[in-house]
Specification:
Blueprint (H helix, E strand, L loop, with lengths): L4 E9 L3 H12 L7 E9 L6 H5 L8 E5 L10 H12 L6 E6 L2 E3 L4 H11 L5 E8 L9 E5 H8 L1 H5 L5 E4 H11 L18 H10 L3 E12 L6 H9 L2 H4 L2 H9 L14 E2 L2 E2 H25 L6 H23 L7 H23 L4 H16 L17
Helix pairs in contact: 3-7, 7-8, 8-11, 12-13, 12-14, 12-15, 13-14, 14-15
């Protein structure tokens, strides 16, 4: 007789009713064996679109557990953290495993859940705590199942590759509830003089901190994907409103804090993989975007043609100090790498970033410096990927 498994799909949603309909449809189409009890938990805490009325249609459906209220969001708090707390509370105690799906993602075939369940049942060990369900676009087509400690999976395939994208995260029920609760302990997302803004990957840090010595499986199968590939205008607007670009830099603090709990204090270069680049390349790119925006704003500030308020003036005067601080955060990552060649290249590369940035700032946006230094440096950071797009592939240099 097959063992019964209570499998939960958990979704936090906010103002994406049309996307939510697609992901729910992909769940309802799943073909499952009789021993799989599939339930859906949804938290809608703050939506102002038609999400609430849509979710009311599932009120009598016993397969669904829904938190559907419009709460007041405290200052400096994101709706997602309110959703996380409510989602955690709504997940039933009998949940064996939970798959965390984004409200703008979807299961890509009718057997996605069963494939994950089969993998869990085949590896039914007490320490098995995590499964990475691979994105369809990023699966290597090798259909590998790699089992190892969660920390070792991060060392091999990348910390953010394994634990970053929520729709790839499948965890034991109690562990998942713990992660949601821990990820909501700091709800501050704005730059604040009294409290540090929370990292945009706080959930990844909490998983690795609390479960690094537990078993995980990288399931290199095409199981889940974004509904839309790339960032939509709505996503870009939301990310800027939620201060995501600045919160990316808190990843450096995350990793330094993780060293207190992990078996190693330095990490393989692969640990820092972020899509086809390293995470430090992405942070450098964000610095360059901020620099371009600042120079544009500086020209507006010095033109005398517009009225300047106190907030804008403070931004102009404090930007050089703040951008240098972000560059130095990137440079700190050199101390986290266990490979001397990578560490040396990293230090040289991002010290150059600091120097070019200050040359450009001191020239008040010289076109000559932009053309001969900034643009070339930007190309170096963004036009030369280090990894193949598929997560399960080797570094390009190994091919």
């Amino acid at each position: 007789m097959m063992k019964q498994i209570n499998f939960i799909i958990a979704i936090a949603t906010f103002n994406r009713v049309n996307n939510l309909k697609i992901v729910i449809d992909s769940i309802l189409k799943q073909k499952l064996k009789k021993n799989v009890n599939l339930e859906v938990v949804i938290s809608n805490s703050c939506s102002t679109d038609e999400t609430s009325s849509f979710l009311k249609s599932f009120k009598t459906n016993k397969q669904f557990h829904i938190h559907n209220k419009s709460e007041k969001i405290p200052n400096n708090t994101l709706s997602q953290f309110v959703n996380f707390e409510n989602l955690s509370k709504k997940i039933p105690e009998h949940a064996d495993w939970v798959w965390w799906l984004g409200d703008d993602d979807k299961l890509v075939n009718n057997n996605s859940v069963q494939c994950v369940v089969d993998t869990i049942m085949e590896n039914d060990e007490d320490d098995l705590t995590f499964v990475h369900a691979c994105s369809a676009r990023r699966a290597s087509k090798k259909k590998n199942k790699v089992k190892d400690l969660i920390f070792n999976l991060c060392q091999e395939y990348g910390y953010h590759e394994m634990l970053g994208w929520c729709s790839s995260i499948v965890m034991k029920g109690n562990a998942f509830k713990n992660i949601l609760a821990a990820s909501s302990s700091n709800k501050n997302y704005k730059d604040d003089e009294t409290q540090k803004a929370v990292s945009c990957y706080i959930h990844s840090a909490q998983i690795l901190k609390n479960y690094h010595d537990k078993l995980g499986i990288f399931l290199d199968y095409p199981l889940v994907d974004n509904q839309v590939f790339g960032q939509s205008e709505e996503t870009i607007k939301r990310w800027n409103e939620e201060n995501v670009p600045n919160r990316y830099f808190e990843i450096v603090s995350d990793i330094y804090e993780l060293r207190e709990f992990l078996p190693k204090k330095k990490f393989k270069p692969n640990f820092f993989r972020y899509h086809t680049y390293f995470i430090w390349d992405h942070l450098a790119h964000l610095c360059l975007i901020k620099l371009d925006n600042y120079i544009t704003n500086l020209k507006t500030y010095t033109s005398g043609k517009v009225e300047i308020d106190d907030g804008f003036e403070k931004y102009i005067k404090t930007f050089p100090e703040r951008i240098n601080k972000k560059w130095h955060q990137i440079c700190q990552m050199a101390d986290l790498v266990d490979d001397q060649t990578t560490m040396k290249l990293l230090a040289y590369t991002f010290l150059s970033g600091i120097n070019y940035t200050n040359m450009y700032l001191n020239s008040n946006g010289s076109e000559h410096i932009k053309k001969n230094y900034i643009d070339g440096y930007s190309d170096l950071v963004r036009k030369f990927p280090v990894f193949n797009f598929e997560i399960g592939s080797y570094q390009l240099s190994h091919n």
